[in-house]
TrEMBL record, chains A, B:
Residues 1-138 form the HTH marR-type domain. SUPFAM superfamilies: Winged helix' DNA-binding domain (SSF46785). The keyword DNA-binding applies. It comes from Paenibacillus glycinis. Pfam families: MarR_2. SMART domains: HTH_MARR (SM00347). Keywords: DNA-binding. The keyword DNA-binding applies. This is MarR family transcriptional regulator. Transmembrane segments: none annotated.
DNA sequence: TTGTTTGATTATCAAATGATAACTAAAGAG
DNA sequence: CTCTTTAGTTATCATTTGATAATCAAACAA
């Protein structure tokens, strides 16, 4: 198989994923939440409870900046910090009820877009889709390295 | 098929794609080119020649800001503007030789990462991969809407 | 115990990005 | 020929984001 052609296909594919992700999320009102803050909330939503260091590592934001943004978010009542029982240096973070509601709305919006895109798909096509994502995530887009 | 589960899988998948894309590109030296500027160059590379308006539309940057960033890039000798023969209002943009060299290096780096990830894959797996990307791009990540 | 590492905070600064208004010139519509 | 729209530019401003230094307390290692 032609690896160069496969690479070109992968570039086009990645571009499409980014493009479609943008289109599926752009018309959700962030209010006064900045894109970076939204990314943090999204990460907390799927991984909570998390420490500040985890947010810093996973979202590639320096600790001082992570601390700053997270302070803003807690001040706005979207998430809560609580001490780790084992290590008094650590702080865990989770979404507050307001934060949960916000993220539920965000994910709900995304899911709506998602369903629209797949509205006309047959059962068989959905199975194919799931299988295709499985294949890709097991190989090209695995995060083990 | 459970659509909610499929949605969750899609969210995880999209996250992985973004994550891996970041990891494949992060250690390429941008020099004094900013991320937004890099995105513009990448777009020009695959779509050249393009007008300013096209860049603005596709990269979701307002015309004034597109004009500003493109001016910086042409000043640095990475791309060139030339008048459209048919419409004197339009300006086409293409990469300069330096810009081409830069983007060749960038794509070369990405391709290296890409090959590393697929180094142990069998011929059959590569075929599967290509097919999987085809399936996804034809359904979930099509950009027709 | 002393020194070092880790987790987090605050303060400050610089740079990148986004937004808006005002403007020019060419093209197109009536 | 006007009027409007399109393509692009310049200038300016606010905000967001990234980067760095200095600090603190707890944990850990010698």
């Amino acid at each position: 198989m032609d690896r160069k052609a496969l690479f070109d296909q992968a570039v086009a594919f990645i571009t499409s994923v980014h493009q479609v992700t943008y289109e599926m999320t752009k018309d959700f009102a962030l209010g006064d939440i900045t894109p970076v803050q939204y990314g943090i909330l999204e990460y907390i939503a799927v991984a909570q409870p998390v420490t500040l260091s985890q947010v810093s590592d996973c979202k590639h934001i320096s600790m001082p900046n992570t601390s700053r943004e997270l302070k803003k978010l807690t001040d706005r009542g979207l998430c809560e910090k609580f001490d780790a029982p084992d290590d008094k240096r650590k702080q865990y973070i989770r979404l507050s009820p307001d934060g949960q509601a916000f993220m539920n709305a965000a994910f709900g919006h995304m899911e709506g877009q998602f369903r629209m895109r797949l509205a006309t798909a047959t059962e068989e096509q959905l199975e194919q889709l799931s299988a295709a994502m499985g294949v890709l995530q097991a190989s090209l887009f695995s995060e083990k390295s």
